[in-house]
Amino acid sequence: AKLQVHMEDITTTPKPTTHWDATYDMRRFLGTDDLAIPGQFRLTRTLPPITRTGAQRRFLTICPPEGGGPHQYKLKVTALDDEDNPIEYFKDEVTTYQAQAPGSEEEMEFSGNPATMENGQQPMT
Fold first, then answer.
1. Rounded CA gap, 17 and 114, in Å?
2. Measured at the alpha carbon of residue 22, what is the angle toward residues 81 and 94, in degrees to the nearest 5?
3. How many other C-beta atoms are found inside a 10 Å radius of the C-beta of residue 28?
4. CA 28, CA 119: separation in Å to the nearest integer?
5. Left if phi > 0, otherwise alpha if psi is -120 to 50, otherwise beta: which for 5?
6. How far apart are CA 48 and CA 3, in angstroms?
7. Do the Cβ atoms of 11 and 17 come closer than 8 Å?
């Protein structure tokens, strides 16, 4: 079984920015225990993509530019059979994600109330 993944930042204009586009051979790099329970395996950071597949084989971090608004990301996953044809029941499965841009330095400073901190700890300044 192979998995084909494609993630885009659909907020960027004039066209989406590809953050991840690769195909993974799950049987080649996972053991039989990992594949024994259908739907229970994961793509881990150490699982290498198939060479020469996809336009962005290394996952780009989801982090909108500082000071900007939130960004929407769309992840599309397709399972492929032994002949690299899409498996109908798992074709173009889409999930969407939203990430907030980091705030300004003033917004990121500690704003806790020392009276509510445990063990009398004082906030760092």
1. 43
2. 75
3. 11
4. 51
5. beta
6. 12
7. no
What is the per-residue DSSP string for 30-87? S-HHHHSSTT-----TTPPPPTT-SSB-SPPP--PPTTS--EEEEEEEEEE-TTSPBP
The Cα–Cα gap between 110 and 106 comes to 9
Q: What tokens does 80 get?
A: 């492929």
For 9, how many CA atoms within 13 A lie in the half-sphere containing its CB?
21
Question: Could you read off the pLDDT tens digit of each residue along the chain, which spans 125 residues?
Answer: 788 999 999 998 889 999 999 999 887 776 666 666 666 666 777 788 888 888 888 887 888 888 888 999 999 999 998 899 999 988 999 999 999 888 734 344 433 433 333 334 333 33
CA 19 to chain centre: 8
By residue count, the chain amounts to 125
